[in-house]
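Hi all, posting the design record for the shared folder.

TITLE: backbone redesign
STEP: 1 of 1
STRUCTURE INPUT:
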């Protein structure tokens, strides 16, 4: 459930036709097949094993389960994960 400030930001972004990833810092996930995932607008890595990666975003958490998962690069804004991606769950 959104609070009043989030609702106002959402309304302004919709009215101005500004993408939500820009106006509200929403995460962007780009998936290539089942072996590559790029995540933009994340805050921090919470868990990192070869079977699970959990990250925090402004809007919640994202859990990636699979096999041989590896973060091949990350910066303050984005990361690239490779391996056999099984599931992606928003928490």
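Okay, here is what came back for every position:
SEQUENCE:
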């Amino acid at each position: 459930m959104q609070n009043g400030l989030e609702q106002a930001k959402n309304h302004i972004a919709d009215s101005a036709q500004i993408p939500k990833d820009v106006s509200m810092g929403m995460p962007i996930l780009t998936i290539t097949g089942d072996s590559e995932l790029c995540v933009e607008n994340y805050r921090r890595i919470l868990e990192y094993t070869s079977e699970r990666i959990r990250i925090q975003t402004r809007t919640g958490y994202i859990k990636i389960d699979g096999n041989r998962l590896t973060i091949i690069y990350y910066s303050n804004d984005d990361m690239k994960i490779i391996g056999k991606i099984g599931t992606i769950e928003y928490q």
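COMMENT: The chain has one domain: 24-90.
Let me know if anyone wants the other runs.
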